[in-house]
UniProtKB/TrEMBL annotation:
Entries under Gene3D superfamilies matching the protein: FAD/NAD(P)-binding domain (3.50.50.60)
Domain of life the protein comes from: Bacteria
Keywords: Oxidoreductase
Name this protein carries in UniProt: FAD-dependent oxidoreductase
Protein's UniProt keywords contain tRNA processing: no
Coiled coil: none
Cited InterPro entries: Auxin_biosynth/cation_transpt, CHP04046_FMN-dependent, FAD/NAD-bd_sf
Length: 440
């Protein structure tokens, strides 16, 4: 065991070497705050190991604007693939001179009686005045208990384990879940000529382009990514929404599940159970497809209103027309006909190693803009930590800069205050792919 870190004290310890942890390090360095970053695996580990071979960003490259390191490639309107994302993060860590210690796992975090923290790691024990937890919200792949009732011959993978169609045995494949991962994996299999069955949940969709621009560009200009969670009257409802499905594959395009169905993909409602070898699905496919389309068209309405208000010259565009309608009634699927299932059913949290009382009754961290009720303990990189962009390459910089100011103020003798009368939790629930609803 390497104990090179054993006994060290730093003003700040950042746990996690993904985009959030690297961004935090950059901001701390710029502010002259001593720190180190611990990463259990390698920098960007999640991008390396939990993404399939054809994975790419769903937001344009120009939105990759980590603090001090905006995208500078020759394809700003393109979509970086997995290996390019990893290279971007590696270059950022090198350029920023991040004091990164890879292969060091944090196993316990405790608050010290006199203030500060003790962090037990695989490389010894460290202490710090402040700790920033930048480990992300998705640690443990989740599968439903009904997976245990599938026929034994069916190969089962979580989306975190899926790499490519050739990885699965020949035959029909069921993908469960229509968040971003589920839809893109279903498309990957469909384009490879596989017979795909897809259990469709309530995740919304969004068009790739509208009226001459990427929809992301319109939303960015309209201020959607910078709007704070506290500006919403229904903040909890906003926070727990699933992300819109779309893809950046092959230059970017819509994901239209109806079009896939017209081409032979079999669509079902939410998976509800397995009985006698038969998979049962809710009678909600039509409702789920209609709701996803309504969200996409509603976004277009907002763009139309923005264009009209600003007097922007933008060509009119015909609206979406469904190319396929689902049959009425619930559907079943013979489990014996399947060769594999890909569970795109989200991730759970594993905060058992954090021995500090900053979680609510559901295990969510309570905070305001990443500042917890425990002086000196912070979170970074959570979805909707403060804005829609918080968990993305486009918004983590603002959150890291905010936390750096908080830490610097404390270092200058500033007051550490709980910033909100009511703590908030910021993990969104996964798409309700299975009934009854399971919150991941």
């Amino acid at each position: 065991m390497n104990f090179e870190l054993d006994g060290l004290h730093r003003p700040v310890i950042v746990v996690g070497g993904g985009q959030a942890g690297l961004s935090m390090s950059h901001c701390l360095t710029a502010a002259g705050v001593g720190h180190l970053v611990l990463e259990r695996e390698r920098a960007g580990h999640e991008w390396r190991t939990r993404r399939w071979d054809s994975f790419c960003l769903v937001t344009p490259n120009w939105q990759c604007r980590l603090p001090g390191f905006p995208y500078a490639g020759d394809d700003p309107d393109g979509f970086m693939v997995r290996d390019e994302i990893v290279a971007y993060l590696e270059a950022y860590a090198k350029e920023s001179g991040v004091p990164l210690h890879e292969g060091v796992e944090a196993t316990r975090l405790r608050q010290l009686p006199g203030g500060g923290f003790r962090l037990t790691t695989s490389a010894g024990e460290l202490t710090a005045d402040h700790v920033v937890l930048a480990t992300g919200p998705y640690q443990v792949p989740l599968k439903p208990r009904l997976a245990e009732r599938l026929p034994e011959h069916v190969v089962q993978l979580h989306s975190a384990e899926y790499r490519n169609p050739a990885q699965l045995p020949d035959g029909d494949v069921l993908v469960v879940g229509t968040g971003q991962s589920g839809c893109q994996i279903a498309e990957d299999l469909h384009l490879a000529g596989r017979r795909v069955h897809l259990a469709v949940g309530s995740a919304p969709r969004v068009a790739r382009r509208y009226r001459g621009r990427d929809v992301v560009a319109w939303l960015d200009e309209m201020g959607y990514y910078a709007r704070g969670i506290d500006e919403f009257a229904d903040a909890d409802a906003v926070r727990f929404r699933a992300n819109h499905y779309v893809t950046g594959r092959d230059g970017g395009r819509d994901i239209d599940l109806r079009a896939f169905a017209a081409q032979g993909m079999r669509l079902y409602g939410r998976l509800t159970g397995v009985r006698g070898g038969q998979l049962e699905f809710a009678d909600d496919l039509r409702r789920n497809l209609d709701a996803a389309d309504a969200v996409s068209e509603g976004i277009k309405d907002s763009i139309d209103a923005f264009i009209a208000q600003r007097g922007i010259a933008a060509a009119r565009e015909a609206r979406y027309r469904p190319v396929w309608e689902p049959p009425d009634g619930p559907r079943t699927l013979d489990g014996e006909a399947l060769s594999a299932v890909v569970w795109s059913t989200g991730f759970g949290r594993d905060h058992r190693w954090i021995d500090v009382p900053v979680f609510d009754g559901k295990g969510y961290p309570t905070h305001h803009r990443g500042v917890t009720s425990c002086p000196g303990l912070y979170f970074l990189g959570l979805p909707w930590q403060h804005t829609w962009g918080s968990g993305r390459f486009c918004g983590v910089a603002a959150d890291a800069e905010y936390l750096t100011r908080r830490i610097s103020d404390v270092g200058r003798g500033g007051d550490v205050r709980w910033l909100s009368g009511t703590p908030v939790s910021t993990y969104p629930a996964d798409d309700d792919w299975v009934a009854p609803r399971t919150v991941a």
